[in-house]
Amino acid sequence: MSNKSGREISRRIVSRRVVGSANPFAKWGRESKSTCLDSIGGFFFGALLFLVTFALPFCAARTEKDSQDIAKLQVTPVAEVGSIEGKGIVSGAVMAGDVLTPPAGSPAGPILAYDYLLERYEYWEETHEETRTEVENGKEVEYTEEVTTQHEGWREKEHDVKWAPVKLGNVVINPQKCRIRLPWVEILSKEFEDLQTHDKLRHAVKVIYAGQEVLLAAEFSGGQIKGEPDFYELTNQSKDELVAAKHGEEEAGRWLRIVAAIVLWTIAFNLMLGPAMVLINIFPVKAIGAGLRFVLTIVSFLIACLITFVTYTFIRYWWVFVLLMVGLAVWVIISANQKRKAEPAEDMDLDLDPEPEDTP
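Predicted structure:
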């Protein structure tokens, strides 16, 4: 871990620019002009962002429920994997196809993978620019300064993650495609000094042990994993624990997309209202303009929530809307037919001639 803030060791001015008059009304005019130009481009970007964001509630509503599919499956011993065609869960002891040895440390048994990290304690310098504004002789002057800071801490020198061929019975598992839920065990964490350079170093090694009883949930064909399975999970959890974990991940992903849609639509509406917000700058008092912008932001947020709810509900429960439309169409047709049947009877009553009155 490094010292992120750092210690300042030098600062120098690299540029100076006269912005304009320091008069409050002159500053207000410059800010209004800048806001007007920015709002034009912001409107078109906001419109594009508005359209693109519809993909998020669509994906949230159409999220596949792999946890439900896994919950319906029965656990089968890996020796009987040849009898499975399609989705299934097999159980057995996971093994390593080859002997794998980490660069340091001594594992207590055969391992499936190791994660080796080597770090060195270093001192280094970073440079960044800072801008400040000062008033000189009634003018606003902007200074850009180059600031150099010194940092110290551990920095990564080498990081290596390696897997042995992973097998469950005769089933070959690809660690690059499979979601592996097996625990990493730290077998080494040590600081030492390089005898040649006298650098301060530390290394750490974590491993995943072979021989664990696991479950493999995937799609099978011919006793092996199908080319592109809908799900591909290797875990030492029970079936119920795996289902609960998958369900939690699916729900978290769904809500993340919903929240992201609300945030992006709020930003989009603010950008699209940019030209209207230019009118707010008629108030030289910043507090009034800031208050009005806050109100518009709240309105944009509420509209974004409403659109997200309507879009998500319509996509997820589209069949309900279809049934309602069909029901409404049937009701309109029946009402129209009843009205047509009633019209001839009324016409017949109107066509009857009145009876002549008796004359004395």
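Summary: Helices lie at 24-52, 55-61, 66-72, 239-272, 274-277, 286-316, 318-351.
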